[in-house]
């Protein structure tokens, strides 16, 4: 899924372990499998929990937003960009992350899967 020039995107292969990752999938998706160390704020709670992001995100750092396939994360990334924050959508989301062989853990820290 590609969202055109309006939404800044980054490929999974361009991400490093040091990059700040925001996962906007819902709780059941997160519990099944996510990127270890990512911040989880479901898109359905994003506005109410926005302060958690601003506290956790690195000052003057980029926020990499991820969901299952890139649709929800594109919406959040665009919102953040409109707020003057350096944010990008992770193209293809967790599906591409897992397909690339990147580690996915469940809520207990065991190997997980993309729901």
UniProtKB/TrEMBL annotation:
SMART domains: RHOD (SM00450)
Superkingdom of the organism of origin: Bacteria
InterPro entries, sorted: GlpE_sulfurtransferase (IPR050229), Rhodanese-like_dom (IPR001763), Rhodanese-like_dom_sf (IPR036873)
Gene3D superfamilies, sorted: Rhodanese-like domain
Record domain Rhodanese: where: 15-106
CDD domains in UniProt: RHOD (cd00158)
Name of the molecule in the record: Rhodanese-like domain-containing protein
Organism: Streptomyces himalayensis subsp. himalayensis
């Amino acid at each position: 899924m590609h969202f055109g020039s309006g939404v800044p995107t980054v490929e999974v292969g361009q991400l490093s372990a040091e990059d700040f990752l925001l996962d906007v999938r819902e709780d059941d998706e997160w519990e099944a499998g996510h990127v270890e160390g990512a911040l989880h704020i479901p898109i359905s709670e994003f506005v109410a929990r926005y302060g958690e992001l601003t506290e956790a995100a690195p000052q003057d750092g980029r926020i990499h937003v991820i969901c299952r396939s890139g649709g929800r994360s594109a919406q959040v990334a665009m919102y953040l960009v409109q707020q003057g924050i350096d944010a990008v959508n992770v193209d293809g989301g967790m599906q591409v992350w897992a397909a690339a062989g990147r580690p996915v853990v469940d809520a207990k820290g065991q190997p997980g899967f993309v729901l």
